[in-house]
Amino acid sequence: MKIEHGELANGMQVVVVPDHRAPVVVHSVWYMVGSIDEETSRTGLSHMLEHMMFKGTDKFPYQSMDKIIQRNGGVQNAFTSRDMTAYHQTVTKEKLPLMMEIEADRMQGLKITDALLTPEKNVVLEERRMRTDSQPQSRFFEALVKAHYPTHPYGNPVIGWKEDIEAYNLPALLDWYKRHYAPNNAMLLVVGDVTLDEVMPLAKQYYGDLPPMDNVPQRAAHVEPLRDAPVWLVKVDKEVQLPVFYRLYRTPTFFQGVAGAKPDVRDVVALSVLAEILGGSDAARLYQSLVVQQGLADAASSDHDMVAAGESSLDVYVVPKAGIAMDKVAAAVDAEVARMADEPVRDDELERAKVSLLAETVYGQDDNDNLLYQVGSWILAGGKAETFDAWEDDLKKVTAADVQRVAKAYLVPNAMTTGVLVGKQQQLGALADKQ
Ligand SMILES: [Zn+2]
Q1: Distance 280 CA to ligand 1 centre (A)
Q2: Domains of the chain, with CATH numbers?
Q3: What is the Cα–Cα distance from 394 to 406, expressed in whole angstroms?
Q4: In the predicted model, what is the mean pLDDT of residues 382-410?
């Protein structure tokens, strides 16, 4: 896979990933704005703006954009995350100029009114109610993430807190739009049946005349301070049918270390190998120990994200079997984590973990939407197009000693947040006193 990179005179990044297997392209524009950039009391503003971006411009009034894309056989969508907001359309290659015309027009030409905002706010509140407020597990996980990041904006949900959504107004949205939507805070990313040589003239034609903004927002390097004790969130919620155990350990990403430390790329990759060995599949340690051998759980896994502008977490997730108290689950997780630090992993585990991490990434790239997401997230988190897959070399170099070293360094009590959610008090066992 080749990633081609250019830049327009107005500062807009242009990135192309050629893939000539089918005559289609995914056209997308990414803005360097997400929940990481939001102030307390203005959470979710980026996501709300994403919704409003479909409300039209003078040239393409409300709903006409949708109709044009549909009529041209395309599909479009958008998403907001912690680090970015992205808009994308999948079309046949010859429709690429039309998508650019539409997307360029709404970068600075959005026309929104209170009459459009009020109903859309209700749409977002309903989205929040459906996804979070009415789901005991999601509600709990949201609170757990806040407990894990009490001061960092990653502690806020991307969709925003309910009272913040209710308080959005038109001036705040327009201000957010003006402060972040400009070519020098954006990236054009096209994946599919094109090359940079073909895309650049079109990009110049459609995006080249958009004026850059004077003050490109500098993303603040938020730092969640180190803590001196583990954090527990233990909750009994009568609505809970399926009790869950979560554990989050603070870890570095390629772009930020724990509590603002300089990230060490080898540690980041070794932590992903560790997560794979600990709980990346049914063959991994947590599943084998908790589900197969001890019969304590129905599900047990772990996961680690390497790419984000801020720090990351190595997450453990366990669903206990009916009748098994959470103190037993916690002790079993602790034992497996301690084993990672106490003894080196076996060679066969190490090799299998490397193969599956690479396979997950590479197979994922077969799908254009997935590839788009991987490349876009990498660059918006702070990565360079040229070094997108450099971590694959670091992966090959990870040793059993590296895995043991990062286990000792990062899977420590003061870096951990544990969430326990049950339906009945007795399911807590000895963890009841952590409430
Ligand atoms: Zn939404």
Answers
A1: 30
A2: 4-207 (3.30.830.10), 231-434 (3.30.830.10)
A3: 14
A4: 96
